[in-house]
DNA sequence: CATCTATTCTATTTATTTATTGAATAGACA
DNA sequence: TGTCTATTCAATAAATAAATAGAATAGATG
């Protein structure tokens, strides 16, 4: 094997891993799987794909060793093969958000369209606020995802049942809502509703997976 | 814009950045550009591409804002748009090397093919050794790349003129050779030659760009 | 201004990727 | 054992990406 053959082989193999990530649907699937395991149908529903199409993309990710399966009864659950995969997604997200102005534009357009000034606080600030007991932290993801793991001291208030949860929440404290990550809009929706109801609410910049990856305190049941 | 449209747009834009990296030749080009700026022809020569083809790939990278141009006389020099791009490459490299066993295999096959036990030391070890004046550090990249920037206290001993350089190098000290990065074979070739001539030589795990990115001492002229 | 040359563009062919549909499969459970 | 069902496979069509070769361009230099 000469130098050129060696380099060709190495870069071709390397590009296979990148190609597995080089598709909008697969990026969305990885982002979703960072919350935990999901069946093919759940993945299809969450991403707007047909089941067959979702399955194909999952095969693609599985071949690249980025996801793994785990059979439970009649269902097959897909999950990330390792935390490092999410790390790569964060890397790629940084790249996209830094060098593709369009990404930033789409996000700010969407948030402005919601007619809310979506201020966000970061993980470090939240840690201090939680220590001082200044805030109530709301996990607005579906309950199932909360139960798999959530930020220490967060309450489960799924976005679609937010109305019910409000009764228990006093208005005098500041609320912080978080969800799956920067491209998940549950927290935005929650802040919009809460603000409209007279609460003082902001979103957390980080989603649950990033929070956990940074080593901040989490709880599993 | 509804939720689905928003997500579709975000992930499509995000995938554009990834698609720019999802090609073996473009990965190799990025790896090369981490050494500094190169003309289209230099890039073509270094990667085994035709000039027209290299130019096309460069346009692709330019559209994704990953590389920038800088005109000098009759030539156009391409360089990475920011250090962060190389960061993304490292991320992707980690992903590939961790989850694609084939990458590791190709590398070890190639090194074994050279009939040398290619031991390597890491940056931290080297720093200590340099402080204790225990080693001579050799930059075996082309002289031009050395002159753009190199590791503090390294000598320029380009691989194709290594024979000439040897006269000045005493045999009693250990030699450490480094080059462009993990997929560059100059350091391997150098270690093979040096060992064969009776020197005690090893390669540095990191290439120059990684060394610099980690904040270890460098020198520019 | 004319020429030279590094680079880019255009057109074409070939290869790869994606979505869709309907059929096939593999495992669970009665 | 047979049925049920979640998932995958296979075939096709449509879209996108890549390599090649030759023409075009833009800027430098005399």
TrEMBL record, chains A, B:
Q: What Gene3D superfamilies does this protein's entry cite?
A: Rhodanese-like domain (3.40.250.10), Winged helix-like DNA-binding domain superfamily/Winged helix DNA-binding domain (1.10.10.10)
Residues in domain HTH arsR-type?
A: 6-100
SUPFAM superfamilies from the xrefs? Rhodanese/Cell cycle control phosphatase (SSF52821), Winged helix' DNA-binding domain (SSF46785)
Residue ranges of every copy of the Rhodanese domain listed in the record: 131-220
A Pfam family of this chain: HTH_5
Is-annotated flag, keyword Transcription?
A: yes
**Molecular-function GO term, any one:** DNA binding
Q: Which domain of life is it from?
A: Bacteria
Keyword terms, alphabetized: DNA-binding, Transcription, Transcription regulation, Transferase
Q: Which PANTHER family match?
A: ARSENICAL RESISTANCE OPERON REPRESSOR ARSR-RELATED, HTH-TYPE TRANSCRIPTIONAL REGULATOR KMTR
The protein depicted here goes by the name Rhodanese-related sulfurtransferase
The organism is Flavobacterium nitrogenifigens
């Amino acid at each position: 094997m000469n130098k050129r053959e060696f380099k060709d082989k190495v870069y071709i193999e390397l590009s296979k891993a990148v190609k597995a990530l080089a598709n909008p649907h697969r990026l969305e699937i990885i982002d979703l799987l960072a919350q935990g395991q999901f069946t093919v149908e759940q993945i299809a529903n969450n991403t707007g794909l047909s089941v067959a199409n979702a399955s194909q993309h999952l095969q693609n990710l599985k071949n690249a060793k980025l996801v793994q399966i785990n059979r439970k009864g009649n269902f097959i659950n897909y999950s990330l093969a390792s935390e490092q995969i999410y790390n790569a997604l964060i890397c790629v997200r940084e790249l996209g958000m830094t060098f593709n102005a369009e990404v930033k534009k789409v996000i700010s357009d969407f948030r402005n369209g919601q007619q809310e000034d979506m201020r966000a606080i970061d993980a470090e600030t939240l840690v201090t606020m939680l220590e001082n007991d200044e805030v109530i932290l709301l996990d607005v993801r579906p309950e199932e995802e909360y139960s798999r793991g959530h930020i220490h001291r967060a309450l489960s208030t799924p976005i679609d049942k937010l109305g019910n949860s409000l009764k228990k929440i006093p208005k005098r404290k500041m609320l912080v809502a978080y969800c799956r990550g920067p491209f998940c809009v549950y927290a935005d929706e929650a802040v919009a509703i809460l603000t409209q109801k007279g609460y003082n609410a902001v979103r957390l910049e980080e989603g649950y997976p990033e929070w956990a990856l940074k080593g901040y305190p989490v709880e599993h049941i």
